[in-house]
Amino acid sequence: MPFSNLGLAEPLTRAVREAGYSAATPIQQQAIPLVLSGRDLLAAAQTGTGKTASFTLPILQRLATNPGASRNRPVRALILTPTRELAAQVAESVAKYGVHQQPRLKSDVVFGGVKINPQMLRLRSGVDILTATPGRLLDLVGQNAVKLNQVEMLVLDEADRMLDMGFIRDINKILALLPKTRQNLLFSATFSADIRRLAQTLLRNPAQVEIAAENAAADSVEQIAYAVEKPAKAGVLAHLIKSNDWRQVLVFTSTKHNANRLTEKLNAAQISAKAIHGNKSQGARTSALADFKTGDIRVLVATDVAARGIDIAKLPHVVNFELPRSSADYVHRIGRTGRAGRSGLAVSLVAADERSALRQVEKLIGNKIAFGSIAGAAPATPSETKAIRPNSAGK
C-alpha cells in the first residue's frame, strides 16, 4: 500500500519517497491511520518492520495543523527511548520526514553521555518534538530547561527495553509531569506481562496492533549455529569473516569487557573492528557506528544495551558471539538483519554451556536452529584445536 493512501499529506509522502520507501509496511498501514485519528495505541511488531515511521509520520502531520514552536514554548510531542543510539535514530527520522513541511516543526534530541549545557541552550528557543532518554530528560526538567505540562502526544518506544533497563521509576516521574489529556502511543518489539500492565495504566481505550506472532523471528533471516567452545570463538569468527568475505558484520557480546577483548583480537587478525558499549563515550559510540555504516570498519562489536537504535537497512550479517541471557533479546539481535525487504544471516557461536540457552531460544521462536560445520576453520592458537566441534548438531 502506498503511503499516500494512509491519509498523510503530500510533503510527508514526498519525504518518504526520497528516503527510498515506496510502500508502507504492515505496522505502518495499521498504525498510521489510528494515530492520525487521535487514538491511543498499543503496538507490537518485529524489529525492523518500520515502527519508527509509524509514529513519527502521524506526529508530524498532527502537529503541523498548529503554529510552530516559539521561544520558551513547552514540548508538544515527547518521544522516550531507552538508549542514546535509538534516540538519535528517531530524531533523524523526525528531521528526515519533516523536511518539506511548511512551516517546519522544530525538533531536538537529548540524552546522557554528553554535556548538558548545549542541550539546555538549544531548548531555550522552544521545540515542538523532543526525543529523549528518561534520565537526561529528568535532569533537564530539574534544571528548569524544559517544560512538559503542555505535551499533546507521548510515545514510549522500545518500551520493553526501557522496563528491562529499570527505567520504570523515571517513566513514572515523567508521566506525573504531563497533562492528563494527551494521546499516548506505546511501541514494543514484544508484549510482556509488565508491558501489558504499563499499558493498562498509561493508555485510554487503546487500539491494539500486533503484526507478527509474539517473539517470532523474521522469515527473511537465515539462522545457523556453530558448536564452538569459548576459547576458540574469536578464531572461528575471524575465519568465518575472512573465508566468506563478510564485509559488514554486527557482533553481539554479553559484556563490555568481552566486547573490548574481541575487538582487539579481530584487529590483530587484520579485520577492522570497533566496540560500542555503555563505557564508551558518546563521541566514540557515534564515531564507531558511523564508520560501520560507511564501511570504514568491517565489524561492530556491541552489547545489547548499546545496540538498541542500530538501524542499518542493508546489514547482511549478525553474529551472536555469546547467546543473550534473555531469549527475547535473541529475536531483537537477529532482527538487525533481514530488513527492508532484504535477506540476512544470523550466526550463533554456541559453547557447551550455552546449549540450554539455545533450547530456550528455539522454544521461544518455535523453530529448531540447525548446526553447521566449519570447513577449514583455523583456531586462534594450536592449543584451541580440540575446542572446535563443527558437527555436533542436535546432540
Structure summarized in a few sentences:
By secondary structure, the chain is of the alpha/beta class. The chain folds into two domains: 3-210, P-loop containing nucleotide triphosphate hydrolases (Rossmann fold, 3-Layer(aba) Sandwich); 221-387, Rossmann fold, CATH 3.40.50.
Q: What is the CATH architecture descriptor of the largest domain?
A: 3-Layer(aba) Sandwich
Helix content: 25-40%
Order of helices and strands: HHEHEHEHEHEHHEHEEHEHEHEHEHEH
The computed structural class is alpha/beta
CATH topology of the largest domain: Rossmann fold
- CATH homologous superfamily (4th level) name of the largest domain: P-loop containing nucleotide triphosphate hydrolases
How many helices? The count is 15
The percentage of residues in β strands lies in 15-25%
Family: Belongs to the DEAD box helicase family.
Pfam families: DEAD (PF00270), Helicase_C (PF00271)
Keywords: ATP-binding, Helicase, Hydrolase, Nucleotide-binding
InterPro entries: DEAD/DEAH_box_helicase_dom, DEAD/DEAH_RhlB, DEAD_box_RNA_helicase, Helicase_ATP-bd, Helicase_C-like, P-loop_NTPase, RNA-helicase_DEAD-box_CS, RNA_helicase_DEAD_Q_motif
